Each structure stands twice: as structure tokens, then as C-alpha cells.
């Protein structure tokens, strides 16, 4: 009887410890947050350069910075100085049936 009582008390104490440990301690997870940037109204102007064989619309908040100009490759950056953001652009002409593959047949 004594052992049975001891086992029963241990079982009750263990169950009570488990139930009390799972109680609400007041901690709640933080809600998800999203980055918010208030942008001014967009005004786009056509950017036409003599270097590129195409035109594109450029925001009045951006500026084009030329990085490298080799005979066949055109590298430039569209910079947004106010937001410290950059879009890196590369233009490479595709000639003939090779598409974007080089002379070895591998994509360059």
C-alpha cells in the first residue's frame, strides 16, 4: 500500500508539473511586418542614347551611369540616389544563328 501510494503521488505530482508548465506566460509572437516606402508620383521620360540600339522609359528619380563600354558590350547602371538603390544592366548584341551561345556552343 505504501508503494502504491508513493507511485500515485508521483504520478499526480508529475501530471501537475506538466500541466502547470504549459500555462500562459504572457508571451505573444510579433506580427509580420512589411517594408513600406512612400514613393512620390512617378514621371517617366524616354531615355534615348546613341550607344544603345533601343529606347526605354526612365523614372525622373533615376539616372543612368555608364560603367564599361567595349565595342560589343554595353554595361550601365540605373541608379536611384535618394534610395541608394541600383539596377545593373548589360546589353549584348546577338548576331546570327548562334543566339546567346558562343563559338564553342556554350551559353556565355
Short summary:
With 108 residues, the chain is α+β, with helices and mostly antiparallel strands.
Characterization of this structure:
This protein is α+β, with helices and mostly antiparallel strands. The protein has a domain at 44-98. It is built from one helix and five strands. A three-stranded antiparallel beta sheet has the order 3-4-5, with no helix packed on it. Strands 1-2 form a two-stranded antiparallel sheet. Strand 1 (44-48) and strand 2 (55-59) form a beta hairpin. It is rod-shaped. It starts with a helix and ends in a 16-residue tail after the last strand. The model has no long low-confidence stretch (mean pLDDT 78).
Beta-strand segment tally: 5
Low-pLDDT windows of residues = none
Computed over alpha carbons, the radius of gyration is: 33 Å
How much of the sequence lies in strands comes to: 25-35%
What's the overall average pLDDT, rounded? 78
Structural class: alpha+beta
Write the element-wise H/E pattern from the N-terminal end onward: HEEEEE
Figure out the total of helices: 1
Q: Tell me about the biggest sheet?
A: 3 strands, antiparallel
Shape estimate: rod-shaped
**Straight-line N-to-C gap:** 84 Å
Give the % helix: 10-25%
Biggest sheet, strands in spatial order? 3-4-5
Amino acid at each position: 500500500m505504501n508503494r502504491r501510494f508513493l507511485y500515485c503521488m508521483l504520478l499526480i505530482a508529475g501530471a501537475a508539473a506538466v500541466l502547470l508548465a504549459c500555462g500562459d506566460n504572457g508571451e505573444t509572437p510579433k506580427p509580420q511586418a512589411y517594408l513600406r516606402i512612400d514613393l512620390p508620383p512617378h514621371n517617366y521620360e524616354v531615355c534615348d542614347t546613341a550607344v544603345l540600339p533601343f529606347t526605354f522609359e526612365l523614372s525622373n528619380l533615376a539616372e543612368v551611369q555608364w560603367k564599361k563600354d567595349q565595342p560589343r558590350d554595353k554595361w550601365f547602371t540605373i541608379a536611384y540616389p535618394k534610395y541608394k538603390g541600383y539596377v545593373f544592366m548589360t546589353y549584348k548584341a546577338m548576331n546570327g544563328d548562334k543566339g546567346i551561345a558562343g563559338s564553342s556552343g556554350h551559353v556565355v
